[in-house]
UniProtKB/TrEMBL annotation:
Residues 124-218 form the OmpR/PhoB-type domain. Residues 124-218 bind DNA. Keywords: DNA-binding, Phosphoprotein, Transcription, Transcription regulation, Two-component regulatory system. Residues 2-116 form the Response regulatory domain. This is Response regulator transcription factor. It comes from Pigmentiphaga aceris. The keyword DNA-binding applies. GO terms for biological process: regulation of DNA-templated transcription. GO terms for molecular function: phosphorelay response regulator activity; transcription cis-regulatory region binding. Pfam families: Response_reg, Trans_reg_C.
Amino acid sequence: MRILLVEDDAMIGEAVKDVLRSEHYAVDWARDGDAADTHLRTATYDLVLLDLGLPRRDGLAVLSALRARADRTPVVIATARDAVADRIAGLDAGADDYVVKPYDVNELLARIRALVRRSVGRAEPVYVLGNVAIKPATREVSVDGMAVTLSAREWAVLEPLVARPGAVMSRAQLEEKLYGWDEEVNSNAVEVYIHGLRRKLGAGLIQNVRGVGYVVPKSVVPKS
């Protein structure tokens, strides 16, 4: 999952970026409003964590421009502005959630997980293909009922494929889930992680579409 962190305070930004990456999210960090707008126009994100008091362009202006493009990417405003009027303005501008600094990191992570689940229209399903069961909400994977441990990068490749059974994803699209803009991308990274997933979960789960990318079969279905 890829998150855009929009924060001009260097200490807060570094701390939040490290926490998010420790949770296996790919993170891009924009330090002003203009940079945030550029990121949002040129890349696809699963969620935006947005400060309001930004240089060059206020966070509300960034949010308003995003929603004007009919972009429904989930947005969490994280700001020191704690007046009721500020919260109303942020939510009315299109934010999905609003947290006030200083916030509890564990609560923030829980809010992020909830918003992402809501945005893709699933509560807490289990995806099943044959003897493989995958629970995205808790990142649990099992084969024949036995738990299987995946690396952070393997999970980053598997989750977007399982979330859209039958939809082909290119190598470039999967690379976006693996890395932020400031991280180096190995040319064969996706292939390496898919090889690892096939070794752990079986060769039939992730299929090649020659010259296009990768897909999990439509027979992977969510079960309550």
